[in-house]
Amino acid sequence: MRVAIVTGAGRGIGCAIARVLAAKGWRLVLAARSSEELERLASELPEAIAVPTDLTRPDEVLRLVAAARDRWGRVDALINNAGLTRVARFEETSPEDFDQVMAVNVKGPFLCMQAVLPLMREQGSGQILNLLSVAAKRVFPEWSVYCASKFALDGMSKALAEELKGTGIRVSAIYPGATDSPLWDDVGPDIPREGMMRPEAVAEAVAFMLDQPASSRISELVIEPAAGDV
Ligand SMILES: NC(=O)c1ccc[n+]([C@@H]2O[C@H](COP(=O)([O-])OP(=O)(O)OC[C@H]3O[C@@H](n4cnc5c(N)ncnc54)[C@H](OP(=O)(O)O)[C@@H]3O)[C@@H](O)[C@H]2O)c1
């Protein structure tokens, strides 16, 4: 039975990933800050634990991986899904917003990957899947800090993938386009969501990537709304 840590599992894409993986028999360790959302989801899944975690805090991330190890004894996949955005004209983006987006979108995955690697090296296997965005491939006005964070994570993810070649640990990245999740509540009420993907579509793609045989890896997968950018 395979074990996955899913960050940002309380809602949106992370919640859909948890549900799809649970249906495929994965044991799950669910992480985010909102404990109520996590506990509710964990109670609905056959084999899942909720570990409330602020992923920007090194001590909490170490506790998250320790909880996974204590409960299941191994971690087969780390899914770095948690993320947030701040959308604003460049001159109106505050240094605090910059720090927060970078902390969650870049430092969080950095801490999680560092924390899980010793265990994966012991196992001689593991998969790390980073939730990027089409905003790591092309840029959008007023999304400058978000784009910067996703380009940064993209570089870190690819460099680590190279560093881990031959270890049995595989690093992959998925680049979704617009997906109808609570993330858009923060962007604005007037954004039309009809043309967006459902979180379940991204989750199914994640499950497919994780299902590859140990001898192969889908290094990158772009998944977008059929109708194009919204
Ligand atoms: N929705 C899209 O259109 C879209 C497109 C491409 C890529 N993505 C990426 O997909 C991922 C998931 O996005 P989503 O749309 O599902 O977002 P969402 O609905 O806003 O959910 C974000 C999740 O991240 C968690 N999170 C935020 N800050 C955290 C922190 N400091 N520590 C722990 N958890 C934290 C949130 O939980 P708490 O607030 O409770 O901590 C929540 O569970 C993100 O990386 C996003 O950039 C989204």
Topology of helices and strands:
Elements: E1 3-7, H1 12-23, E2 27-32, H2 35-44, E3 48-52, H3 58-72, E4 77-80, H4 95-123, E5 126-131, H5 144-163, E6 169-176, H6 183-187, H7 199-210, E7 220-223
Parallel strand pairs: 1-2, 1-4, 2-3, 4-5, 5-6, 6-7
Helix pairs in contact: 1-7, 3-4, 4-5
Bound molecules: NADP nicotinamide-adenine-dinucleotide phosphate.
NADP nicotinamide-adenine-dinucleotide phosphate binds next to helix 1.
Cα radius of gyration in angstroms: 17 Å
Our count of domains comes out at: 1
Give the ligands present. NADP nicotinamide-adenine-dinucleotide phosphate
What is the CATH topology? Rossmann fold
- CATH class descriptor: Alpha Beta
Task: Explain what you see.
The protein is an alpha/beta fold. It has a single domain, classed as 3-Layer(aba) Sandwich (Rossmann fold), CATH 3.40.50.720. 45% of the residues lie in helices and 17% in strands. It contains seven helices and seven strands; from the N terminus they run E-H-E-H-E-H-E-H-E-H-E-H-H-E. The chain has helices at residues 12-23, 35-44, 58-72, 95-123, 144-163, 183-187, 199-210; strands at 3-7, 27-32, 48-52, 77-80, 126-131, 169-176, 220-223. The chain has a seven-stranded parallel β-sheet, sandwiched between helices. Helix 1 (12-23) packs across helix 7 and helix 4 (95-123) runs parallel beside helix 5. The protein is globular and about 45 Å long. The model has no long low-confidence stretch (mean pLDDT 97). The protein binds NADP nicotinamide-adenine-dinucleotide phosphate (NAP).
